[in-house]
Design a protein that fits this description.
Distance between the termini: 114 Å
Strand order of the largest sheet: 4-3-2-1-5
Order of helices and strands: HHHHHHHHHHEEEEHEHEHHHEEHH
Number of strands: 8
Helix content: 55-70%
Shape: elongated
Amino acid sequence: MGDNLKIMFKHLSDWLETWGLTGAFGQFLHLAISLFLLFLVCFAIDRLTRSIIKVFIHRLVKRTENPFDDILLEKGVYRRIAHFVPAVVIYYMLPHILKGVYFVDSVEPDAVLKAFIDYSQKATAIYMIIIGAAVILTSLSALMAIYMHMDISGRVPIRGYVQVVQFMVVLIAAIWILSTVFGFELKGFFTGLGAFMAVLVIVFRDTLLGLMASIQLTVNKMVRIGDWVTIPSRNADGTILDITVNTVKVENWDKSITTMPTYSLVSESVQNWRGMEESNGRRIKRFVNIDMGTVHICSEELLERLEKIHLISDYIKSKRAELAELNRKYSDADQSVANGMRLTNLGVFRKYLECYLKEHPDIQHEMTTMVRQLQPTDRGIPIEIYGFTSEKAWEIYENIQSDIFDHVLAVIPEFELRVFQNPTGADFKQLSSRDGFMG
């Protein structure tokens, strides 16, 4: 095709000479007609290329059931590729056309023509660089959209990596354009670029840290889009909406959006609730403080009253019989509560809570469930309930947990126990009134 265009413009030059159009006017007319015909040919080639893409590629895309090529078409990847063809024709044909105008009897071009050819080719080269970068950027966006349709996209986010590649494409295109305009070699430029690395590290600090953090997050599978995370230092508690090279967006439960640097997910404390959501239950781990002054050995009257509680009736009967058999070894077992073995109201209370949790319909019984006594403090004896609810939704979970501890607080007096609570103003007022200190 290039040879045919050369022959066509050579015939144009010969035709103008036969009409006597020589000299400065003839050269100018020859140049104007040649450029007009060149751009007309390029316009026709552009339209032809677009028509081919529209007729063949569009039909081919519509016939396939794969949605991926539809995304490439919607992003305009094929349309941008069509711009390459006329640009290549202009870049390679322009010197031959201009040479045909001026070089009829000479071999070397003059300074004006050489400069015009140089600037024209540079402008065309810059145009092709921009089109090439646009095609790559659009292709990356299309690949990102394609990836988002895959199941793995929720587990392994790649938006950060795509953004890094897009940034590198733009940077390389910008350097290439500068190299084309000013005429320096890319090899020498990149050699001298090492001297500016310190400045680049400072300028792109967050980007570099975010890139390294994105790699760690992906490789170690620390967090992903859709995870519920809690980040106390950022006051963030909600679902991750997006992870990019520079920022992470978290939608909090009050629908506010918290934006933070990506590297904060690696450098700061992050609580990821994914394990809980993927497990069979959600953990309850809460305690209630018992006043140590109310802990005592169970009297016979108390045991007889507690035997009426269905959950622990069999336990108390069997335990009383077992202890009675053991206490026969001690002749002085009835003389002091310290002699022999006795049931305590706190121990019976713990057993009741264990039985209560085992019978509770909302507790996941396949997972660990226990009631334990923690280290006593100046606030009493902590009795902790540890278990897992079968429902993991936040609202339902909180209701189940609240119902359990409502019941616990309500039955504590049945065991002659009392919840520890610091004195309040009402307590002091009552004490003062009783002792006659109120005026």
